[in-house]
Amino acid sequence: MNLNPLAHISMMSSLLLLSACDKGGSQFSVLSESAQYQQQATFEPRKLDVLFVVDNSGSMSSSQTSLANNFPSFINYFKNRGYDFKIAVTTSDAFYGDQFVTSGCSLCNTQQARFRSGTTPRIYVIDTNTPNLESVFAQNVNVGTSGSGDERAFSSFKAALNSSYNTGFHRSSAYLSVIIVSDEEDFSHDDINLNESYSQPTLHSVTSYKTFLETFTSGKAITDFAVSTISILDATCRSALGSGRKIGTRYMQLADATGGSKNSLCSNFDTVLNNISTHIADQIKAQFFLTRTPILSSIRVISEGVVVPQDATNGWTYDSVTNSVSIHGTYVPSAGANVTINFDPESVN
User: Fold this and answer.
1) Interatomic CA distance for residues 337 and 156, integer angstroms
2) pTM above 0.70, yes or no
C-alpha cells in the first residue's frame, strides 16, 4: 500500500507517524492523538495463482463444458476487485510427464506436464492482462476425453508445478489455489500400472502432498495455499452420474488438510465456482494490523466512505491474537480502495 498523509485532527497535542504492513506486505499510516487512533490504508489484495487440475478421461466431457461455461462465476469476483491473478490448467494424467518419463510408455514424455492450451497462438497462463480471458480459459479447459483412465490428480499437480515448462507460474508472494475437477479418485503411487486400491503399499499419502505444497510455496496450508475439489462427495452423486465413478475420498481429505473447499460434481457449476471464489477470497482476506490494542467497542471501519458493520460473514472482525481487523463478504474492498479504521486504544501510553 502507498503511504497516505492524514488530515489534521483538531485539538491534537502531538503527531506521531508510524508504518506497518498488512499480510500482503502493504503499508499504511497511523495518526495518533491523546486518546483516539486513526489508521488509513490503500487496499492492495494479495496476488493469486490458480491451477485447475481437470480430469481428461472419457467421462468428463460435460463437466469440462460446465466448467468453461460457468467460469465467469469464479473469475468475476477477482476481476471486479482488481486482483492480480494467474490461472493455468493441467490434467489428471500430467504425472506421465514427470514420474515415468524413462519407463518407455507411449504417454510418458515431459510435454505431458506442461500446462494445457487450446488457443492459437498458445496461451498457457491467463493473467489480468489476457484479452477475452473467459474465452481463453474455455479453450484451455477443454482438455478432451482421450486422456488416461488412470487419473492421478495429486501427482499430476505436483508434476505440473515442478515442470520446467511452467517455471514462473507461481509467485513467491502469491496465494496458491489448486482446484481438482474429477469424477474419479486419486490413487497416486510409485508403480506405473493401474492400481486403485487404498491398501497398496506404494500409495502416496495425502499428507505427503500437503508437505509438497508447503515446500513448494515455502508457506503454510490455509494461509498460503489450499486444495479445493469439485468431485463426487457421496453415494447419491455417484449413483446419479452412473457406474464406474468413484467417491473422491482422498480429494476431500486433502481439501480438509489444506483448508480448501469441497464441492459436488453433481451441483450447479455456477454455484460451485462462486463458492470456491468466495472461499479463496476469505482465505486471502483484507487484513489490517493495528499498532495499538483497541477497545473493541470503539472500532469503526470505513471502506470507500461506507461504514462496514461488525459481522463475521459480511462485515469486519477483530482478531486479538494478531491484533488485526479483517473485512469479509461484500464489504471486501477493491484494489486501490481507501480504508479507514478508527479506534480508542486500551492505553494511550
Assistant:
1) 38
2) yes
